[in-house]
Amino acid sequence: MVSLALPKGTFLERPVLDLFAAAGLEVRRPSERSYRASIAYDGGVEVAFHKPREIPLAVERGVFDFGVTGTDWIEETGAKVELVEASGCVPPWRLVLAVPSGHPAVDAAGLPAGARVATGFPKISRQYFQSVPLPVRIVPSFGATEAKVPELADAVIETDGPGSALDEHDLRVVATLRTCLPQVVASPAAWRDARRRAAIQRVARLLASVDGGAAHVLLTVRTTTRDLPRVAGSMPERSWRAGTGLTENLVVVQGLAARRGLAETIGGILAAGALDVIESRVGKDVTP
């Protein structure tokens, strides 16, 4: 059995749970307010819910074998963890610099020297303003960062994603510091252990399969034995021979093709001599 930390109390919670469910890894807990849960897979996975900012360091210390958090929090905490898998199935979000809508600034350089910037990401923020460069006063924030303006701050650096409150607080984005994604991370101790590492990789592959299914289609292609070499050469890299047709001179081949550039891929297969190409939806794409 391995232990897993999942994000709770932020916009990441529901999309991550939906991702696990889509991968066939339903997270079962007594109620949505519970901080303990389990996944009935591969001998069992013990699940605990924590703030995304707490997960990287907890995983680094080995409190949990692996976890899901944001790339922003991995960078901010500087946690030494193993990066296992990033999920493109959960929409990305941005870490942004925002000012009151009436502020004259159109970028970071438009802030006056000494401006107060409230943020829950002081490390990333300091590095950003050093690169501008602009001397500002970083005001650490532990929640409701948008509400710090104007009494406690002149600007904020905050996440801009689902449920963002920037518009509600009449704040305008003037710069994007990072584009962030959810990331599966493993503790160094668990990664060194062959059994736990294999278990973590199996879960990560199932999560990635949801992305693969969304990003790929299955192509079923009929061709003659005469044209098979040319058609096979035009097929996507991940292809195989599926069988023969109803007559001896027909062959069926299949392959996983990326949705991006699909028209060009199919056009190339037909130009190579394929009789027809059938496109099918991929539910999951699990790579061993």
Automatic annotation (TrEMBL):
GO terms for molecular function: ATP binding; ATP phosphoribosyltransferase activity. Pathway: Amino-acid biosynthesis; L-histidine biosynthesis; L-histidine from 5-phospho-alpha-D-ribose 1-diphosphate: step 1/9. It is found in: Cytoplasm. GO terms for cellular component: cytoplasm. Residues 51-207 form the ATP phosphoribosyltransferase catalytic domain. Its EC number is 2.4.2.17. Catalyzes the condensation of ATP and 5-phosphoribose 1-diphosphate to form N'-(5'-phosphoribosyl)-ATP (PR-ATP). Has a crucial role in the pathway because the rate of histidine biosynthesis seems to be controlled primarily by regulation of HisG enzymatic activity. NCBIfam families: hisG. PANTHER family: ATP PHOSPHORIBOSYLTRANSFERASE (PTHR21403:SF10), ATP PHOSPHORIBOSYLTRANSFERASE ATP-PRTASE (PTHR21403). This is ATP phosphoribosyltransferase. It comes from Actinomadura sp. ATCC 39365.
